[in-house]
């Protein structure tokens, strides 16, 4: 099987938040321009399963407000489609993403963890952004019992579809944590495809699609390495060995 399209995973886009999850707007634009100059074609979310050569798609986990403020102008200027994965419980009021892994990382800017509420997500959808599910509460899915797992996946999809009046077709696993039981639950919940983080881009199934995670410390040289045709197969093999 040939290499799947390149799918990038971002989180926040901010100058102020000095954290690995927050890529600066300038760096974000440089990275997208790098791909375009290499003649990779941006595709919509539906274009990823189509498996067309030399294409890429941009995704954002957690639905931080900084994506709407700082990433959207770049995406629209460059005509690059994207998907935002939102936690439905946080979208009720757009509160800060309250997970233990992030509580000590906000520094002087705790507002950087603020997420988009339903109104903000609706606006993004009208501007052509695909809105997918990041579960209800950003749970560690493999640790959940079967009933809890079904609720995290099924309820989030139902809530997003109800609030946005459009299909919720795609899912991103929080923390990039998944296993065969989680893949099966995602299929059963009605998702057309689901994304993990690192994985084998040569042999991925629709409910375990790999992405390249991009962080604040990734300069253009490291970014070029990450998106190269050699990097993904090597990391895919390493990830497969890790999961054994």
Task: Describe the overall structure.
This protein starts with 5 loop residues before the first strand and ends with a helix. The chain contains 8 helices and 10 strands. It has one domain (6-243): Glycoside hydrolase/deacetylase (TIM Barrel), CATH 3.20.20. The protein is globular and about 45 Å long. The strands form 3 sheets. Strands 1, 4, 5, 6, 7 and 10 form a 6-stranded parallel β-sheet that branches. It has a two-stranded parallel ribbon with strand order 2-3. It has a two-stranded parallel sheet with strand order 8-9. With 244 residues, the protein is an alpha/beta fold. Helix 1 (25-37) packs parallel to helix 2 (65-78). Helix 2 (65-78) links the parallel strand 5 (55-61) and strand 6 (82-86). It has helices spanning 25-37, 65-78, 88-91, 118-126, 146-164, 180-188, 220-226, 231-243, and strands spanning 6-10, 12-13, 22-23, 41-42, 55-61, 82-86, 130-133, 170-172, 193-195, 212-213. The longest helix has 19 residues, at 146-164.
